[in-house]
Amino acid sequence: MRQRMSTSALLALTTLSIAALVGCGSDSASGAGTGGAGGEATGVGGAGNGAQGSGAQGSGAGAPSSGRGGAGNEGSGGEAPSCGVATTPCSGEDECCAELECGNTSLGQVCCGQEGIACNTPNGEDCCGNLECVDGTCGYDIDVPACGSPCKAPPALALEKKRLEQIGGSFLGICGDANHTYGFHVPAANLPSSDYSLEGAANDPVCDWYASAIDIGMDWPASRDWLKWLIQGIINGDIENVTEVIGSYDGQDVRYWSDDSGWTTNGIDYSGSGHDTWTHVSIYRSKALEDAGILLGWSADGGP
Prior knowledge:
It contains four helices and 14 strands. It is of the alpha+beta class. The radius of gyration is 20 Å and the shape is globular.
């Protein structure tokens, strides 16, 4: 069987024993589904530019504690809200209350919340797009796959896959295809102990069958701006779980960043192939259950 967790539960799960998380027995499901293999990764993953170092991790997405506001005081004669509350039909964001956006849900085009916004409908009708209402907050319900063959997507990257789906970008894989013989797209169970992606305490695997990298298509309008934001966030320490990035700011000049090469704005030349139309992001293997926030807050047209 599978266990499940909400977006907000990712960090909390790290306090549980690994046996409790993955002791459900062998899970043979593969493919692109959430918590499964996630599809085969595109191109030659990993990198030929040196090994990973260790580093401290642990940031996640905190959910605001504020409610909807302006919902009215039933029976008290309160004034009607001056802005559209959740599930109110809308034609533009200026019609919705401050925390809400005018987006699509199963009700049609209505005022709704993005990830981290309070909600109160059991079927997620007040959460935009593919978001669900989980424990009173718009987010995602994530599978925790049992630890066993074959390769599986860790919860941290299954979450990023769902965020990418919400954005509308192409998902190109987590578990590597036959071209991947080393690096973070390959589960530790299929690697020699000398592989660079296993170096350091930060890469002590939560599960030997979890891959630890995701390939994100750069086919959404704000994708190049997102990559710049991601690198700057790592440099500033705002994003802590990422250990390696391969990508291009302009779709031509492919750059490489990692703990060993150093986190600078422009990185170093990438000696491999591809990664001009997609970005490879690796997380520490020990942080497979923690929200890395790689795509948190981004939409097709912009982000934080």
